[in-house]
Amino acid sequence: MKVFGQRKRAAAAIAAAATLLALAACTPASTGTPGASSASTSSASPQSSTTAPPSPSAEPGTSATVGALVPGFPQALLPLMPGAKVVSSSFDKTTVPATVALVGSITGPAANVLAFYTKALEAQGFKAVPGETVGTVPSKDFLRGDNETVNISVMETTGVSTFTIGANVAAESVK
Questions:
Q1: In this structure, are residues 169 and 6 in contact, taking their beta carbons and an 8 Å threshold?
Q2: What is the dihedral of CA 117, 119, 122, 128, to 10 degrees?
Q3: More confident call, 53 vs 87
Q4: pLDDT in the model for residue 135
Q5: Rounded to whole angstroms, how far apart are CA atoms 24 and 157?
Q6: Of 42, 11, 2, 3, nearest to 151 (Cα)?
Q7: Quick check: helix, strand or coil at residue 82?
Q8: 3-state class of 143 per DSSP?
Q9: Which residues lie below 8 Å from residue 126, measured CB to CB, with a gap of 6+?
Q10: How many CB atoms lie within 10 A of CB 53?
Q11: With contact defined as beta carbons under 8 Å apart, do 69 and 75 qualify?
């Protein structure tokens, strides 16, 4: 039953990252007229970074960013795969355990993404949980100790893999 609870926490982190991504997609890129076409807002650089404004209930130490790693993102814990682009990231060090999420994309197969992050996490003492998919989606869970979890899921479409990583880890793991 521990694995189910840990998968549930990892799923919550993934859902949070997906929500941030969805909110970012719904946020207007400019203050143009309501009927303005998307072409008029495409002049912004695709590499630009937008930091989500804090919500009224946001705690200090909670942050989310679209297009970049949030300030303080624990790159030693979750390194960005070489060649990958950040879609969004979030980091909440106010929770116990701390919650970290990363959504990225890279040209290449899902198997390469899983292999990279498996190696990186196992080098930090995480152990892979049996299972390689959820339905038809490549997905892998990792555990360290009794309460640190990481989940990686990858969607591959026309040679591009979009990956979502959700982690719930001890505060000392994100310093």
A1: no
A2: 60
A3: 87
A4: 82
A5: 21
A6: 11
A7: coil
A8: strand
A9: 142, 143, 144, 148, 150
A10: 9
A11: yes
User: Residue 154: is it exposed, middle or buried by C-beta count within 10 angstroms (0-12/13-18/19+)?
Assistant: buried
CA 150 – CA 168 distance, rounded (Å): 6
pLDDT digits (tens, 9 = 90+) for 132-155: 878 889 999 999 998 999 999 999
Mean pLDDT of 10-38: 40
Given the structure tokens 């969607």, which residue do they identify? 155
Which of 104, 108, 86, 97 is closest to 160 using CA atoms?
108
On the CB side of 143, CA atoms within 13 Å amount to 14
Question: Which residues lie below 8 Å from residue 175, measured CB to CB, with a gap of 6+?
Answer: 74
85 to 51, 79, 89, 138, 164: CA distances (angstroms): 16, 12, 11, 19, 12
Round the average pLDDT of the chain to a whole number and report it.
75
